[in-house]
Automatic annotation (TrEMBL):
PANTHER family: 64 KDA MITOCHONDRIAL NADH DEHYDROGENASE (EUROFUNG), APOPTOSIS-INDUCING FACTOR 1. Pfam families: Pyr_redox_2. GO terms for biological process: aerobic electron transport chain. Its cofactor is FAD. Keywords: FAD, Flavoprotein, Oxidoreductase. The keyword Flavoprotein applies. GO terms for molecular function: NAD(P)H dehydrogenase (quinone) activity. Belongs to the NADH dehydrogenase family. This is NADH dehydrogenase. Residues 6-340 form the FAD/NAD(P)-binding domain.
Length: 436
């Protein structure tokens, strides 16, 4: 194994895990290369589903993938740890010491050698330095944060239900800062939770007692998507009795309120930050690699970093140019999926001294899911290049297919079919909302 070309992929998100799965099945299985995945967690959950984990609509334990088990099935190695540095001269990835929950060091700092390095560490929320955001907001960047949110939400509902029973003031004010896809979909999921939890015993609290507000600095929600889709999403949120505030930049976040730029103060006992993203800060400190203001690694169209042809980056942590455009590839799950496919071809070619494949992004459209209520979106026609507006059951079908496509990439068609069947059985036997 030591003589094999060693490909190290840092980050087991949607793109990173799909890439090592393909490389393991193609190269690792035939012992043409050694493939290693490095991630700070032991399991993978598709990031676009974290808002469903947070609200309880999705049971993460039934949908997460254990890296070690997956690595064994797909012929790659897994290393638990967080990347903290890079030794380009010796071609080593530096992995920070791993500590137990009580702070005891389990594994010291390690150096993993590589021949080809791929960085796919995703992104985190960008609070733009807003005072109080880090201390008083909840974030949904990781599975741990989503699970913490879920526990806090259940406790908040329980507390308000008890206050209602006592005849005290019991309105629960929830604010979501940022009306991109995550913020809008989370608002719908929280509204569903406010209607489902009374069914499971919290019957003193009514859905009308839960006030949900979405706050967006731009003049409309979903500002990066077409206006028609934004208008349809606004209409649906208002139909679900979610307040929509646009053109309202947040100036400060306090423990129990949100202060707008114009001085307006909104009561908020749970505040979620879902506005903006940035790449992890440690990328800006890596030896000699070029980054932009958002900490993204600047790459060529081949996904190779501008300063080192042996280091690739893709997904949310990379700024990849596109022909005939002054904007990089947008940080979306479909972009990471497409980049993983392109990079797989490049890395296979690389072993045979072949050329790198330039990445060209194909926008297939956008879908916004309003929990179990409805789905709206636009799909791009491959032949005409024009978008088609869809909603309702048809849009919902396309939305669900995105996750199934991710599962097919990780497990194959047959196993994904079994997973789909198990999901159906689980929904029939389990509560409609995760209650613990």
């Amino acid at each position: 194994m030591d003589n094999l070309h060693h490909i190290v992929v840092v980050g087991g998100g949607a793109g990173g895990l799909e890439l090592v799965t393909s490389l393991g099945n193609k190269l690792g299985k035939k012992r043409k290369a050694r493939i290693t995945l490095v991630d700070a967690g032991l399991t993978h959950v598709w990031k676009p589903l974290l808002h469903e984990v947070a609200s309880g609509s999705l049971d993460a334990s039934a949908n997460e993938i254990n890296y070690r088990a997956h690595a064994r099935k797909h012929h790659y190695e897994f290393q638990l740890g967080r990347m903290s540095g890079l030794d380009r001269q010796n071609k080593h990835v530096v992995i920070a010491p791993f500590h137990d929950l009580d702070g005891t060091e389990v594994v010291p700092e390690r150096h993993i050698p590589y021949d080809t390095l791929v960085i796919a560490v995703g992104s985190t929320a960008n609070d733009f330095g807003t005072p109080g955001a880090q201390d008083n907001c909840l974030f949904l960047d990781s599975l741990d944060q989503a699970r913490r949110f879920h526990n806090l939400m259940l406790n908040a509902f329980l507390r308000k239900n008890h206050e209602a029973f006592q005849g005290a003031e019991h309105t629960l004010n929830i604010s979501i800062i940022g009306a991109g896809a995550t913020g809008v979909e989370l608002a719908a999921e929280l509204r569903l939770a406010s209607r489902e939890l009374p069914v499971y015993g919290m019957n003193h609290l009514q859905p009308s007692d839960v006030s949900i507000t979405v706050i967006e600095a731009a003049d409309r929600i979903l500002p990066a998507l077409p206006g028609r889709l934004s208008a349809a999403a606004t209409k649906e949120l208002e139909h679900q009795r979610v307040k929509v505030l646009t053109g309202q930049p947040v100036n400060e976040v306090r423990p129990t309120s949100v202060v707008m730029k114009d001085g307006t103060e909104l009561s908020s006992e749970m505040t979620i930050w879902a506005a903006g993203i940035k790449a992890p800060a440690f990328l800006a400190e890596l030896e000699g690699l070029e980054v932009n203001r958002g900490n993204q690694l600047v790459v060529e169209q081949t996904l190779q970093t501008t300063q080192d042809s042996d280091i690739f980056a893709f997904g949310d942590c990379a700024a990849c140019p596109q022909p005939d455009s002054d904007r990089p590839v947008p940080p979306r799950a479909q972009a990471a999926h497409q980049q993983a496919d392109t990079l797989f071809k490049t890395l296979c070619n690389r072993l045979d001294n072949g050329e790198a494949v330039p990445f060209v992004y194909n926008d297939h459209g956008s879908l916004i899911n309003f929990s179990r209520y409805t789905t709206v979106g636009n799909l791009m026609g491959n032949l005409s290049g024009r978008s088609m507006y869809v909603e309702g059951k048809v849009a919902r079908m396309f939305y669900l297919s995105l996750y199934r496509m991710h599962q097919v990439a990780l497990h194959g068609m047959f196993r994904t079919g079994i997973i789909w069947l198990m999901d159906k059985i689980s929904r029939a036997m389990q509560p409609r909302l995760k209650l613990h």
